[in-house]
Amino acid sequence: MSSVGKCLASGWCDYSEEHARLRRTLEKMVEEYVRGGSKEYWLPVIVAPYGSGKTALLRHLEWFVSEKLRAPVLRIELVELIDYLISTRGTIHESELPSVVEEFFWSRVGGERRGVGVLLVDEVEEAYDTLRGVVEYETSPLRGLAEAIRTRKISVYVVLAFGPSSILKEAVFGPVAWRSRILTIPLLSKKTIARWVGDRVRGVDGKVVELVANTIWWASKGRIGWARMLVDSIAQKLVDAVSRGYVEDMLYRDEVFSREIVDGIPLLDRGGLREASRLAGSLSKLVPVLAALVGPIPLSMLEKFVGEPVFPEASNAIVFGRSGTRVDDVVGEVEAWLARIAGKMGVGGNVVSKAVDVLRMVLEAWSVDGLVLWEQGCFRELISIAADIARELYVDEPAVYRILEKLDPDLVAPETVRFPEPVAALKPSIVARIYPLLATSPLVGCARKAGEAQILEAVEAMDYEQLKSFSRELVKVVGLEPILAKTGLDMVFVPASKLSKYASQIACEALEKPLALVVVQPRGSTVQKLPPILAALESLGKLYTVEASGRLAIFLYSLAYNYTIPSNACRLERLVQSEKRSIEQHSELLKSLVLDKLASRPATSKTAEILAKTRTMLASLGRFAPLAWAIAGSLVEAFALKLVEEAKQHVEVLASYAGSKVDIGGLVEAIKRLGSYKRLLDEEGVLELTKLPCQAVARLGLPGQPMLETVDVDELFGEIEARLETLAQIWRPEQLQKAIVGLKGVVEKASRNKLVAMLVLEIARQPLEALAQRLREVERAYSSVRGLVVELPEKLRGRVVEALAADASKASTLAELVEVLLEAIPLLQTLVEKSRELETVNGRVERLRAELVEILSRLVKTQSHSPQTRVVAGVEVSA
Fold first, then answer.
1. Percent of the chain with pLDDT over 90
2. Quick one: average pLDDT of 745-752?
3. 611 and 593 housed in the same domain
4. Could you please report the per-residue DSSP string of 827-845?
5. Looking at residue 133, which CATH number applies to its domain?
6. Cβ neighbours around 867 below 10 Å, total
């Protein structure tokens, strides 16, 4: 049996099936934790605006735990727990919070632990800033508590109640998100309010009852507590005032309408009522009645209440018409379109259901007898209002309002029906001005007095330096400093129309320090595609784009407009006080969007990983990095790789002879890999960033363009060939000579492309230099050897050279050849010395022989001239 419409003993009422479902869900979560037995548990977070029933729901849970579960239960405000924490501990780490909660709970309910208790915590947003100050944390001070509840390691089940705010985003940020469950209290429908009004007001036209219910819905925005109070206090007053002709006086003077639904936002904005009268012009007399009875009023009824005929005419505040459509038909069409949008956005049907529910409530509150006045401009305004309400209500699910913002009203064309007679109504935007949403007027300060065109012109005339300066002020005004400081980001505000113009400046800043980019589009619901270089930075995790459209965009434009006006009255620091509520409301929205963006960012993106791999590989290439990067992925890559392979074979031979190392073993594979990385980076637009004039290449960790200087290796080749020719008498290394010829051929082929030529020459340079250096050492040794060989007797020289050549042929490296030559030098020196000694001895023998011959010759002359021949000292002498 359905409980819808029934109130329980606790005081909680199931006003709708959604209210009943929410209650049952919470009861089940609490009971499962108290009883135990489940595999996993969640931290419940109840979310609803002020006056929507959070406290009533907590009271019901208190009653349920005490009366139905017979378990200990305590309902508190967060500040009470914080006071206990400070008095007993001072400051703690997030992991200690569960034990503090247990100590606090059991000390308050009686001291002795008995089973599992339930702690209901209200007004969390009011004291959350203080909690952040006393709990040390990384992502959220509630993380340790949420984990303890998930695993049931704490004897106290905690239920939190929040008002929608950016604080909620942070509280359930990151790791807490999957440990908690957000439960939003739905708004009250106009139909429920109409039943209450019908019970309260008797003897009036049913249409009047429904129109009064519309008014109360707009004033309360569907919040249970406010709606009940308004039904009890002003429903009858409105009927009486309209019927008796003093409605204007009642709207301006009644104390109830002066109350603030939240700080700074009255139930009825009398300034908005006066503005509506001004905009209505000659129809201003209709405004009080239409404000008291929101929705389409038949002209005959309107004439009765104003006491004179009504002639429809064009107006900026009032719409007339006879064409209507059924709320159900509009909702049906919208739901179909939202489902398509959700599919494209990748969000679930639950989001569509929530968006449809909010839009239905708004449509019903501007309808009568199930019919809404069908006028395209008004329908557009109703969608915008629904998006604003969804933004406030479902702060944890931004997709709900985003799909409403993406809905194109022109695509919705339900079947129209005719009202029995013409009707009149205040335009939805005027209704929202008189009964302000919490998403109150986005225009603040001096912007209120300026027209839209003037604001747009002034803001879009700001140059980039002015936008940066304004952005610094904006961060302070909206309270983004702690978030940006914690995440290491800067922020810049840029109109969407100027995004392309300032893309380079934005990119350069983001390369220096990651940037939150607030792109503002006041003219439409979505921001156009990011320029490629900014999209590339986003993929690298250096840019976080926050799209601001709709009312938030207008608010940001109005702040920027105030910034451009050189007047003390327009200074932003003054607006923080005079426009406190509006600034707080829109600041919460901007902070929420920023937190959403940060929460959705991956630890590292695929593009960032590719860039990191690229940098690592380039670092491993050393001096080849600039040329390898320039060639990788280019049209000459295949040509270059072929020549590198050829050059590699030859330089390895040169290196083996020179006794040096070749560091190009992985060059070919590296260039291939770099080519694939470069293609992926190019697809993401990263390579476009290298064209920026702000040291972008260095900031990305990539090499710059190589200097296309000519490396002259011809001289080295000439020197090497000349020295080898010098050694040819003793050493002819055929393999080395072939390698030199082959390398010269590769260099010649590479000369067809400067980059390839540079790479090949760079590959060849070190081995050639090492070879030339070794040959110089050989030359020095060989020079000494040749000098000694020349000093040998001629008949020995050939034999010595042959011996040297035989030893040199065994040398496989130039170092070994030097060793052979150096070993030969002392031997040759000895041989030269011995040769000289022998020459000296031989010279003496020759002199003695000559002297002897001379003596014998003289002796023969003194003797008789005998024909005899004698041999003396081995010499024949004739007598």
1. 38
2. 87
3. no
4. HHHHHHHHHHHHHHHHHHH
5. 3.40.50.300
6. 6
